[in-house]
Amino acid sequence: MGRKARGLAAAAAFLIISAACGGSTATTTQTDVGVTSNSILLGTTIALSGPAAAYGTIANAENAYFTYVNNTQGGVNGRKINFKILDDGYNPAQTVPLTKQLVEQDQVFLMFSGLGTQAQTSVRDYLNTKKVPQLFVATGATTWGKDFGSFKWTMSWQPPYQGEARIYAKDVLQNHSNAKIGVLYQNDDYGQDYLKGLTDGLGDKASMIVAKESYDVTAADPFAQLTKLKAAGVDTLFLFSTPKPSIQSLAFVTKVNWTPTIYLNSVSSPQVYLLAAKKAGAALQNVTSVSYQKDPTDPQWDNDAGMKLYKQVIANCSTCNVQDGFNIYGVAVAYTMVDVLKQAGNNLTRANVMKIASSQLNETNPFLLPGVKVTTTSSDHFPIMQEQVITWAGTGWKLQGSIIDERGSIK
Amino acid sequence: MQRVRTAPPRYWLVAVVVIFFLGFPTVISSFLASEWAQALILAIAIMGLNILVGYSGQLSLGHGAFMAMGAYISAILAHQYKIDYLLTIPVAAVATGVVGFLFGFPALRLSPLYLALATFALAVVSPSIIKRPHELTGGVQGILIAQPDPPPVVGDLFTTVTGTAMTSDQWIYYIALACALLLFWLAWNLARHRPGRAMRAIRDGEVAAAASGVNVAGYKTLAFGISAFYAGTAGSLFALSTGFISPDTFPVSLSIQLLVGAVIGGLASIPGPLLGAIFAYFLPIGSNQWVPSQTWLPEQVTSTVKNAGPAVSYGVILILIMIFAPNGIVGLIRTGYANLNRRLRGAGDRETGQMPPDPQTV
After folding, report:
1. Which chain B residue is nearest to residue A3, measuring alpha carbons?
2. Is A228 on the interface with B (CB under 8 A)?
3. Residue A111: which H helix or E strand, with range?
4. Is residue B336 included in any domain, yes or no?
5. What is the pLDDT of residues B336-360, one digit of tens each?
6. Which of A328, B125, B204, B276 is 20 to 30 A from A4 (CA-CA)?
7. Distance CA A269, CA A247 (A)
8. Chain A residues with CB-CB distance to B27 below 8 A
9. CA-to-CA distance for A182 and B150, rounded, in angstroms?
């Protein structure tokens, strides 16, 4: 019996070790890892499942644009773009191993458009140590552009939340100079970034903010906070909240017969959410937000070349809703990525791509509002700093005034 | 020598497993080593849960909160007070163990279902609690943890074996392995001796155990304390291996993952948590990447797996385990081994022409 068991154990050991050897991979460190003569491999981590799964469509839209470029132009300089999307479920603890997998096992050329502030912060150190570009992260936290000096391989794309809040401040000072401002913000870096931008933007008029209330991401609803704001006599309400609490707030305000002027942050302003709020009973009066990209639901772009191109591109993605604002975001940021790769030409090294993205961008993006330019210089690493005020007009957003430029306001 | 020769087969299996885990990182990439380190860390936490659920029969859905506590104690000590991270691991483990022990007192008064709810509540509120002392925990920004370079002695040894320099991921793997070996050995001793027997007695019949002179309250709280000690160690190591912790790092689903791992591996067994952890760690990653790429599967299945994430695979596996292997993988292996052994013995007897003894007639 003893001998047989020993034989079994030896067999098991042999099996395990041979299986282990089969799994080994080589390690390489070249300047152009992930690039071959006919392909470029990009990677991303994004929430395809979990509480933030609604963002997942962004990656699919980005992939749709890469497919479009591969099919109509044969890729970038003859190299087809492959895009590997992994699901981190919005959990930073998942982002770390998945990013390591993409960098070390799949050997991607760069990380593109990873989503979530905490998630992307969790891998920033790692990617910078490895000198792998972490390009155009899909979060508006101010730290990406501001701390470029310490993290030279990381960059954002969209306007930072603080810049957006400064635009609201300007609008309030111009149109509602006697406003009693109340702020509802999410108690994390996202909400606090907005609050800081608004306070900075109001400057010595910051006392206009008569009340501010925060809620936790895990909270069921923000009703108690809204009741307090109403009791404080607020007539101008700022919602620095993610889509779900924003929809709840918009409906709640109508329910308690409160008619403040509402400033809704751009994270929650895609038309689909406003329509959901309307369904929940929100009157949606005097709602203001900002935008920098063309709204696929706005009929004024029906004959616009950029919008036509967007519709052609998004047809490559069977699961994408053409009206979803997240999808035009994805296509627009993928456009910038392709632009950078084109400019890099045959000098397709990580360092060169990073240099172009961080200091040599000067692009007119067909999916963004006319006048919005994607630019970076050696001293400015916020690609987009222009936005336009929009107001809700019953069924869709209406552009107001002209483009407001906040470039240089965030140091 | 005589002892070695007559050692029962499971000792040999243990030796093989230890040697396998020692040598594994020398043949796999640094990235795979970091994944296996995470699996080992999960195994430690699941072992803790196994002591509580499997041996003492108390259910906990909140072990993620104990992991979070261990992780934050270590991270704060290392980050704010500049203490060497490795030294903070035992501190975090003991502190978490004490808190777990204290949590055991109110737990005594709760029946199993309510205990599950109370611990679940612990897991739900912990991310919000972590955010409050902003200066200490870094709030939502989290804390970055520098990953240590291997000490020269270990690094040189590794280089002579593999010919490549040792990365910090590989070094963390060995730290995790050392902790796992120590804690599994402790758990094995615990299970074989008086406390293990007492806990099992309480699990199987509290009144009977008390009647036999077992200190029910003492052992129940002790089980909670030891269990939290394991979770604290795992949390501390987890923070080290991810290199970054924030409140979102410890969602409710982590606690569920631990429980699923414990059940898949096999409750009240020593190898169970290791097998359970390997499954619980690699299964969602694997199924999430493999299932959606399979064209032969119906679209509904692939898109469900894609949208719902690891929850689907956990659910399916848990149901299958409950139906086909209620004692987990370990139970499955034990039955299989027993059957195989009977077959082999039968064959041997046929050779000698002797009939196997019939237990009914002997």
Report:
1. B9
2. no
3. strand A110-112
4. no
5. 888 888 777 765 555 555 555 555 5
6. B276
7. 10
8. 20-21, 23-24
9. 53
**What is the count of structural domains for chain B?**
1
Q: How far is residue A278 CA from its own chain's centroid?
A: 25
- Class of domain A162-291+390-405 as given by CATH: alpha beta
Task: Give the nearest chain A residue to B235 (CA atoms).
Answer: A93
Owner of token pair 């509602």? A176
Residues in chain B: 362
Name the class of domain A39-159+300-380: alpha beta
Task: For A100-121, write each residue's pLDDT tens digit.
Answer: 999 999 999 999 999 988 889 9
Is the pLDDT confidence value at A5 over 80?
Answer: no
Cα dihedral B106→B110→B113→B116 (10° resolution): 10
Chain A residue numbers touching B271 (CB-CB < 8 A): none
In 3-state terms chain A splits into helix, strand, coil percentages (rounded to 5) of 45, 20, 35
Contacts of B8 in chain A (CB under 8 A): 5
Domains A39-159+300-380 and A162-291+390-405 share a fold: yes
% pLDDT > 70, chain B = 92
Please indicate whether residue B246 or residue A154 has the higher confidence score (pLDDT): A154
ipTM rounded to 2 decimals: 0.73
Provide the pLDDT confidence category of residue A1 given band limits of 50, 70 and 90: very low
How long, in residues, is chain A?
411
pLDDT band of A14, cuts 50, 70, 90: very low
* Residue B184 to residue B187: CA distance in whole angstroms: 5
What is the pLDDT at residue A54? Answer: 80
Mean pLDDT over residues A291-307, rounded? 92
The DSSP annotation for B205-225 comes to -HHHHHHTT--HHHHHHHHHH
Query: Is pLDDT above 80 for B306?
Result: no
Torsion angle in degrees (nearest 10) through CA of A293, A138, A354, A380: 60
Neighbours of A16 (CB within 10 A): 15
Amino acid at A151: F
Helix (H) or strand (E) holding B185: helix B168-192
B129 touches chain A (CB under 8 A): no
* Bridge partners, A84 (sequence order): A43
**What single-letter amino acid sits at A335?**
Y
Q: What contacts B88, CB < 8 A, 6 or more positions away?
A: B73, B74, B77, B78, B236
Assigned token pair, A119: 């998630």
Residue of B nearest to A123 (CA): B244
For B145, list phi and psi in degrees, rounded to 5: -120, 125
Mean pLDDT of the residues in chain A: 88
Angle (CA) B277 B279 B280, round 5°: 65
Of A178-187, B158-167, B338-347, which one has max mean pLDDT? A178-187
B115, part of any domain = yes
Smallest CA–CA distance from B124 into chain A, residue? A218
Residue A364 has pLDDT above 50, yes or no: yes
Task: Look at residue A240 and tell me whether its pLDDT is greater than 90.
Answer: yes
Residue A18 contacts residue B21 (beta carbons within 8 Å): no
Chain A residue numbers touching B344 (CB-CB < 8 A): 4
- Does residue B130 fall inside a structural domain? yes
| Structure tokens belonging to residue B125 | 């509120």
Say if residue B304's pLDDT is above 80: no
Nearest in space to A385 (alpha carbons), one of A368, A367, A407: A407
Q: How confident is the model over B54-79, as a mean pLDDT?
A: 94
Enclosing domain of residue B121: 2-251
Residue type, B150: P
Position B21 in a domain: yes
Phi-psi region of B309 (alpha: psi -120 to 50; beta: other; left: phi over 0): left
**For residue B165, is it left (φ>0), alpha (ψ between -120 and 50) or beta?**
beta
B359 CB-contact burial (10 Å; exposed 0-12 / middle 13-18 / buried 19+): exposed
Write out chain A residues lying below 8 Å of B345, CB-based: 1
